[in-house]
Write a structure and sequence with these properties.
Diphtheria Toxin Repressor, domain 2, 9 helices, elongated
Length: 176
């Protein structure tokens, strides 16, 4: 067994010093930021208006959405990638994940809305529970949709009211 002498000088090998990420890793990071910028360019207009971005990045993305020529489009996307280097990409990625339904919290909300819809159609008492939990919901409209959904199930009709209940519940859950 070898004992280490605390008074002995430690020798450092220049190869053991960490200089940061390799050039390849830096390139991968830059390409990832550019892909995130491209995802911003491809967003639908309604989602692009809602996403929170720094003003210079928002202007660059808006300009890129107007460009049709391939060379100019490529250069503008590279410029967006350059702007993305000075921005924290995590909040932007989180907002894109919410838009794409990737977010765990967003999935949980959708599952909760599905459970409420199933309870409302199956049980009359569930509407009272839902209205107690969410007093801002339109009770009359929900009652009518529940009746229509039950009628659709009995008569084997397309589930129009069934889907409408889900949409209404999701909006109520997002508002609260």
């Amino acid at each position: 067994m070898r004992l280490i002498d605390p008074d002995a000088e430690l020798e450092f090998d220049p190869d053991d010093v960490y200089d940061g990420p390799s050039r390849s890793q830096q390139k991968r990071d830059v390409e990832a930021l550019q892909e995130l910028g491209e995802a911003l360019v491809e967003l639908p207009a309604a989602q692009f208006k809602r996403i929170e971005l720094p003003e210079n990045l928002r202007i660059a993305v808006a300009e890129c959405r107007k460009i049709t020529q391939n060379g100019a489009l490529r250069r503008q996307k590279q410029y967006i990638g350059k702007l993305m280097r000075s921005v924290d990409p995590a909040p932007i990625q989180a907002q894109l994940d919410v838009f794409n339904g990737v977010s765990v919290a967003e999935n949980a909300k959708l599952h909760q809305a599905e459970k409420w819809r199933d309870k409302l159609i199956a049980d009359n008492e569930a509407l009272t529970l839902f209205l107690n939990a969410h007093p801002d919901a339109d009770a009359t409209h929900l009652r009518q949709l529940i009746r229509n959904a039950r009628d659709e199930a009995v008569h084997n009709k397309p589930p129009k009211a069934f889907r409408e209940i889900f949409r209404v519940i999701r909006e109520v859950l997002q508002a609260s």
